[in-house]
Amino acid sequence: MRTMGLDAGTKTVGIAISDAFGWTAQGIETIKINEAAGEFGLDRIGELVREHEVSKFVVGFPKNMNNTVGPRGEAAKMFAGLLEETFSLPVVLWDERLTTMAAERVLIDADVSRKKRKKVIDKMAAMMILQGYLDSQK
């Protein structure tokens, strides 16, 4: 069984999947959503859950640098609850502070254009969130 990592924003959700051993994370796609309209891409997430035999979710939990939870953190908690309710699978909230910035840095260092970075940044952040969680389990 695999673990799915998610980096949820207001317009997209980056998706990553672990290997079968739970050692490595691979970014697989970015789903367009509309948080304001209550559209969270659950149909597509469900397809990926079935396709990859997912048994657990790890959702990026954006805390403030002083360890408090702001509006984006509350939105992540709500999204995690929605996943748990919809799929009846365990959900772990994982501190994602600075993962998007780290993903951006990696892509800049790899000389990826701004236009291409925008297309893959959320997927890469989801991969970094999931990899951090997987590494903590060893």
Please count the helical segments: 4
H and E string: EEEHEHEHH
CATH superfamily grouping:
YqgF/RNase H-like domain
Overall morphology:
globular
Number of domains: 1
Rounded to an integer in angstroms, the radius of gyration calculated over CA atoms is 14 Å
First-last Cα distance: 16 Å
Main sheet attributes: strand count, strand direction, barrel closure = 5 strands, mixed
Which CATH first-tier class would you pick? Alpha Beta
Subcellular location: Cytoplasm
GO molecular function, one term: hydrolase activity, acting on ester bonds
Protein name: Putative pre-16S rRNA nuclease
Domain YqgF/RNase H-like: 1-103
Can you describe what's shown?
- Helix 3 crosses helix 4 (114-136).
- The chain has 138 residues and is α/β, with parallel strands linked by helices.
- The longest helix has 23 residues, at 114-136.
- Strand 4, helix 2 and strand 5 form a beta-alpha-beta unit.
- It is built from four helices and five strands.
